[in-house]
Amino acid sequence: MKNLLLLSLFALLFISCEKLDEPDILGNYINTPEGCNPGENPEFNCSRLIILSAGGVAEVLYGGDIFSRTSYKIKGDKIKIEKNDQFGLNLTFKKLEDGSLREEGDNTIWVKQEDIP
Question: pLDDT tens across 27-59, in order?
């Protein structure tokens, strides 16, 4: 009887944990660091951009003007962007209630954008 009660308790705990689904996070997210004025020099845009696509593909513009392709994984309520030969950082984000993302390393907010041309 104790085992059944414990099993039920773990099942309830597992079910109640919020987990992200891929369709919930797909899209374009932009972050403009403090002190950055992306309009000053059109050749240098200091805003940072992440595009999360289906199948775990992420396009990352993290300073500079070249996109890096890497992958991401959803783990619980977190999104982990993985380091590879094109992109040299591991980034972890948490999705906020308003649909934006918070990067856990520096607590910056990445705002979800409508389609970017």
Answer: 999 998 888 776 655 556 788 899 999 999 999
